[in-house]
Automatic annotation (TrEMBL), chain B:
<keyword id="KW-0812">Transmembrane</keyword>
<keyword id="KW-1133">Transmembrane helix</keyword>
<comment type="similarity">
    <text>Belongs to the complex I subunit 4L family.</text>
</comment>
<keyword id="KW-0472">Membrane</keyword>
<protein>
    <submittedName>
        <fullName>NADH-quinone oxidoreductase subunit NuoK</fullName>
        <ecNumber>1.6.5.11</ecNumber>
    </submittedName>
</protein>
<keyword id="KW-0560">Oxidoreductase</keyword>
<dbReference type="GO" id="GO:0016651">
    <property type="term" value="F:oxidoreductase activity, acting on NAD(P)H"/>
</dbReference>
<dbReference type="GO" id="GO:0042773">
    <property type="term" value="P:ATP synthesis coupled electron transport"/>
</dbReference>
<keyword id="KW-0813">Transport</keyword>
<feature type="transmembrane region" description="Helical">
    <location>
        <begin position="6"/>
        <end position="24"/>
    </location>
</feature>
<dbReference type="InterPro" id="IPR001133">
    <property type="entry name" value="NADH_UbQ_OxRdtase_chain4L/K"/>
</dbReference>
<feature type="transmembrane region" description="Helical">
    <location>
        <begin position="60"/>
        <end position="87"/>
    </location>
</feature>
<feature type="transmembrane region" description="Helical">
    <location>
        <begin position="31"/>
        <end position="54"/>
    </location>
</feature>
<dbReference type="Pfam" id="PF00420">
    <property type="entry name" value="Oxidored_q2"/>
</dbReference>
<dbReference type="GO" id="GO:0030964">
    <property type="term" value="C:NADH dehydrogenase complex"/>
</dbReference>
<dbReference type="InterPro" id="IPR039428">
    <property type="entry name" value="NUOK/Mnh_C1-like"/>
</dbReference>
């Protein structure tokens, strides 16, 4: 039994990776049963993740090392796994969500032509994600990171033959995007972040001599001061390092790929863009947070430069939360709205992790809330996306204005979707409420009032857009589903089950909220203890459930929910306000609408600066630069060599006397050489 | 060197004459004779360098020369055969006509 | 009399015409070829036996009449293995290749004589024994080049070859005589001992020049190479394989042997001369065939290029360089032998040597094409094949000996040589347009069997060169140490 438990972490990530190719080797006769086996592999991975829980050490961590290859400078890169509370929790979350989503997609992708490809990429993605979570060193982590990026490219561009019906964007007259372009955009933006991440990893390696996370923590007292001696080096390293998670988690300024990534099939959006891949960035920040916290507060003397890490994370996170939320307020496509909301919530998580380190008081609260919010968001966002899949399928359109569902015909979907959305807003007693409240509380505790204000305003915005899209979809007044392009009726059971489970789980966690949070924070406190991160000055060791200090954020968030929700209710639910008239009447409102609709003009900016300029320089480069090089190499060198050749061949005359003459000349030259050498 | 210098000069001159013959002569048979002159130069060198004590000649040198003469003969035999065929193909004994293989 | 190997070879050489005359009565002329091949295989077995004895006991000495000696050390065994191996391939190959010619028993007899001459050269411990066997090899090769005497081309080529090579041998004899004059003996060991004390006297330089010219003509060092393209193209293909693969290498062996034992007094000087000559040889050997149209002429020039690489290995003067040269001798014999034999198959079927007329032939003759491509890629020096291993050793040795420019020259020339090898590959793999090539069939199975075995050896020695490296290293240390 212990062997299985020991093997569990390895099997956890190996099983889905193996499962990705299993359906290729099984005979074609089994048809859909092959894919069921892939789902089975992901179920096995979830089992392995569950098995890791009992062995999760109450204090500290377990590092299962392994050998991979040794670097020329003598160090070695290991193929090892790090089992601590953070990684076990995330692994469980990822494995559970992946299993549910694969189950969902078994029915959803039925009949799709590229199904083989889909299952390969999905399973490989899950393997890569688990590899990333369980890795114990930066290189192994990076391998998983890249696998995840690669698979997301393949999955976003799943409909790569650019069939008209899969284009996203619009509605006309606004432009459309083809799926292949979307996949490429995702790959390019995330790779940009990856390159920066790799650069900073190398810099860290140069100073610390190791890639292993645990060793980085333990030796932080040695290499961080080294790095801090060069002014600005730590800042640059931190910024490069953070580019990776920001790109992967679609934070400003790397956020433009996520809305377009909705071109992929809905289970893909659910898995990648709600539950797992975008969380990888948050995970990396959480992983490396202790190092920078140590540098900022524990190391003696404190290295204030390390605070850049937290400031950047918090500010970017907060800003993105606000940015994305405002864009979601005007979005017409359902999946785009969900994408913006994902960006917004991840902004919250980043904010939480950021403020955790901004003062010694807030670390436990911030960290715990951030991770708790990550868990909750994974659950309810996955549920939302799965519902969205059902809705899009049923209505045949991606626009919420085309979706006129009735509550009566789709009872379960209606219920589950409302549960998930309210959890997103943060309505008590659902799960989202507790974690969001924790984030607001940690902002207060660390004394970041500006960020607190930003977060509070975002709560308002969130509630507005959620109520907006839910109203438009379900409460536009029709009594039965009437969609010319789709089919009516409730979703099939196999698709209903996963998001049903998730919605129920949301409710469950919500009811157990405070206790769950306490359990989590105990785990993390133990872990921080083992890393010697908590000193006497950071007094907060456990959270009290209710106290006056904690009441402020709760009250404030409820107020904000109402402030945001009421206008939305008026406009969309009860239709007391007519939005179009409002827009026409007040020009500032119209301008604001336009600004938000055009995604704060950021996409146009990036396109103009990066894409169009490079495309425009194609012509002159080809003409002036390449043509000359081409001529020099491809025409110049052959001419040179044939010239040499023609002349050398003249040496080989057919005349015998010339041949003997060569011999005579050789003799004479050698004799002269002797003469010069010996006599002189 | 033990041998009187004029022996050495002579064999060296003989060698140069042989090379000169090979470089300048046109008739194939003269080229063959050039080779013979070269070999004889070497043989002569062997004999002249074979005496360390005047009057006594090292038998090794003599045996070498004997075998060398035999080898020269076989070379000449093969060469003459080839010259005969060359005459049949080209119709001339002029080696400068044998220039079809070039480049 | 002589060592068992050479005995066997000579016996077979002398009795082959007899067997040939006998089998002509029963009209199965190929049997004498089979007889000759059997003889070669027996001698290979004897060499193996000698290898066992030599590696355990040290160099073997045989004395015979003429008070000259055979001294068989590891280097000799190494070279003899190469020679007899390629000899067996050529002989078996010629069973089918030469069937359209007349005078076949004579062919096999001459082939055996040539091989026994070469084996005797490497086994000899005395300069004059060396010379006798050298002449035996040379004379048989003149005749073999001129074998197809009905056409003008072999005759012209053989004539020039004969005159130049005999001039070279005569020069060699002259150099030997000066050496004899200095030391009174022609035994390699004796010369080594006597001359390493003398240091550098003028006469040593003079004899070095003559010996270098004499050996250089045969091993195609650059100003003395002009006979080679003609002779190697005009000879029958199995003889071309022998000539290009092993006969030129006998010259390299001789330069090594003479240079490191006899001329060790003036080593640094003659090594620098060899270095310059090697660069010159490589350049001429690789730049001239770039636009050649005749396939065998192209391969002959590439032999000159590879001789340049071998000279570069010698020019380093270190054990590693000599190991590289010896390995390259073995590998080049294999690669070039295979290449010429493949060219022979194409010639056998198409009767033409022009590249333009053979475009696409690889598509109709798949086995030949594959073995040809393997040998050509090995000649370029492509990694999993054996040419790469020896070239890398030579380059490393030049770096080790502080002659990095030589290593760079080797690499650049390797790159240039890739141009014409790949041109040949491209020509034989083009789509078939000519009618004559449409109808061509694959070569006869015996020839293909030989090709396959040789190319398998190329691949094996490329992937697993350990055995070869050790053998060459031991042979080199025998030369440099003793």
């Amino acid at each position: 039994m212990t062997q299985i438990v020991d093997l569990a972490p390895w099997l956890c990530w190996i099983l889905p990776t193996v499962g990705s190719v299993v359906h290729f080797v099984l005979p074609k006769k089994m048809s859909r049963a092959r894919y069921a086996i892939v789902v089975l592999f992901s179920f096995a991975a979830w089992l392995m993740a569950l098995l890791m829980i009992p062995s999760m050490p109450i204090q500290g961590y377990r590092d299962i090392g392994g050998f991979w290859f040794s670097l020329p400078s003598g160090g070695s890169v290991g193929l090892g796994l790090l089992i601590d509370s953070l990684s076990v929790i995330m692994a469980n979350l990822v494995a559970f969500l992946s299993f549910l989503i694969l189950l969902y997609s078994f029915k959803y992708m039925d009949g799709d032509t590229g199904e083989d490809r889909y299952w390969f990429f999905m399973s490989f993605f899950i393997g890569g994600m688990l590899m990333l979570i369980l890795a114990d060193n930066l290189i192994f982590f990076f391998v998983g990171w890249k696998i995840v990026g690669l698979c997301s490219y393949g999955l976003i561009g799943h409909y790569y033959d650019d069939n008209r019906k899969y284009w996203i964007g619009g509605p006309p007259p606004f432009p459309f995007q083809k799926p292949s372009r979307c996949g490429l955009k995702a790959l390019l933006v995330t790779t940009l972040g990856d390159v920066a991440l790799l650069g900073s990893v190398i810099i860290i390696y140069l100073y610390s001599g190791t890639f292993n996370f645990m060793e980085l923590y333990q030796n932080a007292g040695t290499w961080l001061p080294e790095m801090a001696k060069t002014p600005g080096l730590l800042t640059i390293t931190i910024l490069l390092f953070l580019a990776g998670p920001f790109a992967k988690s679609a934070q400003f300024p790397f956020h433009e790929w996520l809305p377009e990534a909705m071109a992929g099939p809905t289970p893909v959006s659910a898995l990648i863009h709600a539950a797992t891949m975008v969380k990888a960035g948050v995970y990396l920040v959480a992983r490396t947070l202790p190092i920078f916290y140590f540098a900022a507060w524990i190391a003696s003397p404190n290295i204030p430069e390390a605070l850049t890490f937290f400031i950047t994370v918090a500010v970017v996170g907060g800003f993105t939360a606000f940015l994305a939320g405002t864009q979601a307020m005007v979005s017409l496509e359902l999946k785009k709205a969900l994408a913006y909301s994902t960006m917004s919530v991840i902004g919250y998580m980043m904010l939480s992790l950021g403020v955790a380190g901004m003062s010694p008081n807030a670390i436990v609260e911030g960290f715990t809330s951030g991770i708790f919010h990550l868990i909750n968001h994974g659950i309810f966002k996955a549920a939302l996306f799965l519902c969205a899949g059902v809705l899009i399928h049923a209505s045949g359109s991606i626009y919420i204005t085309d979706m006129k569902f009735s509550r009566r015909d789709m009872k379960f979907t209606w219920a589950f979707m409302w549960i998930a959305s309210l959890s997103l807003v943060g309505v008590p007693p659902l799960s989202g409420f507790w974690s969001k409240d924790g984030i607001l509380a940690s902002c207060l505790e660390s004394g970041q009032y500006l960020l607190f204000a930003l977060a509070a305003i975002t709560v308002c915005v969130t509630s507005f857009y959620v109520i907006r899209f839910m109203s438009i979809i379900f409460h536009s007044g029709s009594t039965k589903n009437e969609h010319p392009g789709g089919h009516s009726g409730e979703a099939p059971k196999l698709m209903l089950l996963p998001y049903g489970v998730l919605a129920i789980l949301t409710v469950g966690i919500g009811l157990l909220g405070p206790w769950m949070k306490e359990a989590l924070s105990n785990l993390f406190v133990e872990e921080f203890h083992s890393l010697n991160l908590l000193t006497v000055s950071s007094g907060v060791e456990h959270i009290e459930s209710f106290g006056f200090g904690e009441a402020i954020p709760i009250l404030l968030s409820i107020i904000m929910i109402v402030v945001g929700g009421y206008p939305a209710y008026l406009a969309y639910f009860s239709k007391k306000l007519n939005v179009e008239n409002l827009l026409k009447k007040y020009t500032p409102l119209n301008l604001l609408h336009k600004f938000l609709w055009n995604r704060w003009y950021m996409d146009t900016f990036f396109n103009k600066v990066f894409v169009s300029s490079i495309l425009a320089s194609r012509e002159p480069t080809a003409k002036y630069l390449e043509r000359n090089m081409d001529l020099a190499i491809n025409v110049g060198i052959p001419k040179l060599f044939s010239y040499i050749n023609t002349n050398i061949r003249k040496l080989q005359t057919g005349i015998f006397s010339i041949n003997m003459l060569y011999i005579l000349m050789f003799l004479v030259i050698l004799f002269l050489l002797i003469l010069v050498r010996v006599i002189i | 060197m033990i041998a009187p210098p004029h022996y050495l000069v002579f064999s060296f001159t003989l060698y140069m004459i042989g090379i000169y013959c090979l470089v300048t002569k046109r008739n194939m048979i003269r080229l063959l004779l050039g080779i013979e002159i070269l070999i004889n130069a070497a043989n002569f060198n062997f004999i002249s360098l074979a005496s360390s004590i005047p009057g006594l000649i090292d038998p090794l040198a003599l045996s070498i020369v004997t075998v060398s003469i035999g080898l020269a003969a076989s070379v000449s035999a093969v060469a003459v055969i080839i010259i005969v065929y060359a005459y049949r193909h080209y119709g001339t004994l002029d080696v400068r006509m044998l220039k079809r293989l070039k480049g | 009399m002589f060592s068992p190997t050479i005995d066997v070879l000579l016996i077979f050489a002398l009795t082959t015409p007899l067997i040939g005359w006998l089998v002509e009565r029963i009209r199965k002329v190929q049997l004498c070829g089979v007889y000759a091949s059997i003889g070669l295989m027996i001698s290979l077995w004897y060499i193996y036996e000698l290898f066992g004895k030599v590696s355990s006991d040290g160099a073997q000495t045989f004395t015979s009449f003429f008070s000259s000696q055979l001294r068989i050390d590891l280097l000799g065994i190494f070279m003899a293995t190469v020679f007899v191996l390629i000899g067996i391939s050529a002989s078996v190959y010629s069973l089918r290749y030469m069937e359209r010619d007349t005078g076949i028993p004579l062919f096999y007899s001459l082939l055996l004589l040539m091989i026994s001459g070469m084996v005797g050269t490497v086994f000899s411990g005395d300069f004059f024994t060396f010379f006798v066997f050298w002449e035996m090899m040379c004379i048989s090769s003149y005749t073999l080049v001129a074998f197809r005497k009905q056409r003008w081309e072999p005759i012209e080529a053989a004539f020039k070859y004969l005159i130049m090579s005999s001039a070279g041998s005569a020069t060699l004899l002259f150099g030997m005589s000066i050496l004899y004059g200095i030391c009174g003996t022609l035994n390699f060991q004796g010369l080594h001992i006597a001359l390493s004390n003398v240091g550098s006297s003028v006469w040593l330089y003079v004899s070095a020049i003559f010996i270098l010219i004499g050996l250089g003509v045969k091993s195609a060092i650059v100003p003395l190479h002009t006979w080679l393209p003609d002779a190697h193209s005009a000879a029958p293909s199995s003889i071309s394989a022998m000539l290009s693969g092993v006969v030129v290498e006998t010259g390299i062996y001789a330069i090594c042997r003479v240079g490191f034992t006899v001329l060790s007094g003036i080593q640094s000087q003659w090594i620098s001369v060899i270095a310059i000559l090697s660069v010159l040889t490589m350049l001429v050997g690789n730049l001239t065939p770039l636009l050649q149209t005749d396939l065998k002429r192209l391969l002959a020039y590439s032999s000159i290029g590879h001789i340049g690489y071998m000279l570069a290995g010698i020019a380093t003067g270190t054990a590693l360089g000599l190991t590289g040269t010896l390995m390259h001798i073995f590998n080049h014999a294999l690669m070039k032998g295979t290449a010429f034999l493949c060219a022979g198959v194409i010639l056998y079927r198409l009767e033409t040597r022009e590249l333009k007329e053979m475009s696409g032939v690889g598509r109709r003759m798949p086995v030949t094409a594959i073995t040809f491509i393997i040998s050509l890629l090995a000649l370029t020096g492509l990694p999993p094949l054996n040419g790469f291993v020896s070239e890398v050793t030579i380059v490393l040795a030049t770096i080790e000996a502080n002659m990095a420019w030589l290593g760079v020259a080797v690499i650049i020339n390797s790159i240039i040589s890739a141009a014409y090898y790949i041109r040949v590959i491209r020509t034989i793999l083009q789509p078939v347009t000519q009618k004559k090539i449409e109808e061509v069939k694959e070569g006869p199975p015996i020839m293909l069997a030989v090709l396959c075995i040789l190319s398998a050896m190329i691949i094996i020695f490329g992937i697993w060169p350990d055995a070869l490296i050790n053998f060459a290293k031991n042979a080199a240390s025998v030369l440099l140490g003793g």
